[in-house]
Amino acid sequence: MSGADLVVDALQKADIRGWLDVVWHFDDATHQHCLLVAGLAAGFAQQLGLSEPDCRQLTQAALLHDLGKSRIPLAILNKPSRLDANEIAVMRTHPVIGHEMLRNGDFSDTMLAVVRSHHEALDGSGYPDNLRADRIPDIVRLVTVCDVFGALIERRPYRRPLAGNEAYEILRSMDGKIDIDLVRAFQPLAEAAGTVADAA
Ligand SMILES: [Fe+2]
Ligand SMILES: [Fe+2]
């Protein structure tokens, strides 16, 4: 199954599609971001040779990782300039909100961990739970790499989209916070994304 097929497959699951539609109706840019991160995660899962169930689970989790942003005021979510301290605090509630939205549904603990913990850092400096490396599961680390990279190659109101190789250098500079072995394994995808960005 190709990366694109994995995303299409995940979108055909009614509960995934339903929650992603909540994001779509709220904010198109966040919806696009979720699709991008899911595409990256699907490609990454396959490159790493994960089993098909793991590929599916990772793709589904990536699609909904930012569900909680559908409850963040748009004035903060799409603010065209730097967020102030209060706004950052509000923005940083999105993993817990997303987790709350899904926790009573029929989702695996792995899926819920991705939604809640994708902004954790290996050195414990992330949020919302200041988890350290030994508490951050591999699937969460995978999504974090794809999420950071995806955000960098996207166009934002306040900056141009970075080319894949520029975004990759930033990922590499985050050694100690994100899993650098995974970052190394991600390089071929980063290069492929660079080609897309250059052509656009
Ligand atoms: Fe997020
Ligand atoms: Fe994200």
From TrEMBL:
Domain HD: 30-149
Gene3D superfamilies, A to Z: Hypothetical protein af1432 (1.10.3210.10)
Gene Ontology molecular function: any one: phosphoric diester hydrolase activity
InterPro entries in UniProt: HD/PDEase_dom, HD_domain, HD_GYP_dom, HDIG_dom
Organism: Methylobacterium haplocladii
Taxonomic classification: Bacteria, Pseudomonadati, Pseudomonadota, Alphaproteobacteria, Hyphomicrobiales
The protein's name: Uncharacterized protein
Span of domain HD-GYP: 8-200
